[in-house]
Amino acid sequence: MALIKSDFNQIRIILKEELGNQEQKFEEKISEVKSDFIEKIDPILKEIVTSREERPLIENRIEELEKLHPEGEHTNIA
Predict the structure, then answer these.
(1) CB-based contacts of 69: which residues, under 8 Å, 6+ apart?
(2) Predicted pLDDT of residue 26
(3) Does some domain include residue 9?
(4) What is the pLDDT of residue 2?
(5) How far is CA 30 from CA 26, 27, 38, 59, 64, in A?
(6) Is residue 78 one of the residues assigned to a domain?
């Protein structure tokens, strides 16, 4: 039995439907993975930002402590 033009048209229609469904499923899965990734990486990024914001404060505090304790000894600077 040979295929005729209408058979090929029917095959094309079926393939387009199936590929369209696969594309939609693929996009949904990508969106899901993206969402999971963002959910997991967000707290880590917040920690990094907080650390960067706190670094100058800690450095200033260390400098002030070093003024009070040069060479590991306490001085009476007022």
Answers:
(1) 75
(2) 92
(3) no
(4) 82
(5) 6, 5, 12, 43, 51
(6) no
d(CA 6, CA 39): 50
In a domain, 16, yes or no: no
Range of the domain at 60: 31-67
Distance in angstroms (rounded) separating the CA atoms of residues 27 and 32: 9
State residue 20's pLDDT score.
86
The single residue listed with the structure tokens 């209408």 is: 6
Task: Tell me the two tokens of residue 73.
Answer: 């000894």
Name the domain count of the chain: 1
Distance separating alpha carbons of residues 8 and 31, to the nearest angstrom: 34
Q: Which ranges of 1-78 does DSSP label H, i.e. alpha helix? A: 5-68
pLDDT in tens, 20-71: 889 889 999 999 999 999 999 999 999 999 999 999 999 999 999 888 888 7
Residue 53 lies in a domain: yes
